[in-house]
């Protein structure tokens, strides 16, 4: 792409320099009167005052000195007013500039249709209308643009069949990418000229690739990506010996690749990604000695990785992601010293990771995720000092301690994803780990790791994303976690963490202000896989800044209140505290979290009412407080009108239209409460009365001596009478029995 634009602007610059050399006094000459009127008509057709934008003045007869105007002998031969923020339509009067050789109106906001009269520009060799809002069909007649060499109308809204220039015998570059052209590619008309560059990317072109493409013998760049092309690659394409860049990605092409691909020995770039190719990748790369970039991602390729890739010394990018490649890697990476990107993720590759990768010292991106690699990380990885992105998730690597001790030597490592590895329940290292000073993303999820949140994480000052979910970590959440200034995405869910939340979590700088994380660099095309469960499904983000600021602490054993300080986290998008043991009320301060989209407090022990102020959260799309002990009315208005009944179930005293019985329950509960209260009052009064009576009796006996003497005589009489009566009865019984024995 860079070579194409260099060629375009080299041609334009050469023309302008030729003009200046031919007539050094042209800037001081009076313009042709007709050309002057054309330029003024052009500026008058703009929505904004064109003269003020480009510096043209109707009172200045020396239009040859105007901004963007080049002339020869008083005639305008080149017009370059690109990137001037021009609005409006293109005046058809430009077609009257019959000496015009180059016209560049790119990178403006011009709209409307291209005037049909442009066909009359018989001397025009360079036309650049790219990056505007032009629409309709591009006008080309049978004999139009006879001298044209370079056409760039990319990034507009043109429709219809793509333009061809049958009368242009010298057409070299045609760029119509990023429009809405449809239909088949007219290769017969295109290849009648010595065309070198065809860029048809991102249109709606359909049909099969024609074998007539091979007629473009001079073609060096062919970009047909992001269309609807179907069918196999014609064998004739393997005869286009001058081809250097081939981009066919994001179509519906199928079939297999042929060994004759090796005939294209000038190839620098091959991109066939996101199609439906099948079969094995031909092991013929030894003849492609100039190859720098190979992208075959998201197809159905199977078999082994071609060992002949080792014989491409210029190779910098290899992307084979999302295929069915299998077996051990037999590539000799020691010979690929220029390798910058290796992405073989989502395949069936097995065995151990080749230690030779460690000798690719320019490697910046390495993705081996979701394969069947086993064993430990090679010690040679210590040499990858340029490595920035590393994903090894979804394999069978072992010995986490050894892996971290190797990777801590990589000073430029920013993204480390080790999800779903280390089977057998290893313990996350607490000591002996340093380095990782540049790490921004650390994902150690779904590894069933034991232990506590390691204290060495607090030295990762640039850490922005931390996911250690789906493990078996225990202990408390350390206070220092909330003091990492760049940390804005935390997922500690599905562990066994306990204790109360540290207050520092509610004062995280990056969640109060987004200045830190918004400037994080992109990871490009490579996805960051964040596993969320054992099914293998997860979230995918292409860059760090696309992660929603989140605090996910669900499925633990955390206790205590929901921190009112959460209200300070105005940049937080997701707050998930579900499935814990939090208690107390829902703080009203949560209504200050103006960016909140998800608030999940389900399955806790919260009580009180739902604060009505939460209706102020205008971005709230998910709200769940089910299975708590909440009471009172559910707030109405705002986003609360969009929530379902399931978001509130499990709170018997929470009232709304869907739970009208809660009012009766509350009334019965109040009645029972009143009855219980009356009984309690009665019992209390009875006890007080008895106590008061006993106190009065005791006081009378204590202070009134005669009453006391009488009281004790009465007591003696009460106790003596039964004793005398009993003794008399016993004596009479004995006398009676004695008389019976001795008559």
Automatic annotation (TrEMBL):
Sorted keywords for this record are: Cell membrane, Glycoprotein, Leucine-rich repeat, Membrane, Receptor, Repeat, Signal, Transmembrane, Transmembrane helix
Q: Does the keyword Transmembrane helix apply?
A: yes
**Known SMART domains for this protein?**
LRR_TYP (SM00369)
This protein's membrane topology, according to the annotation, is:
Single-pass membrane protein
According to the record, the segments passing through the membrane are 683-704
GO CC terms in record = plasma membrane
The protein's name: Leucine-rich repeat-containing N-terminal plant-type domain-containing protein
The protein's organism comes out as Digitaria exilis
Q: What is the lineage of its organism?
A: Eukaryota, Viridiplantae, Streptophyta, Embryophyta, Tracheophyta
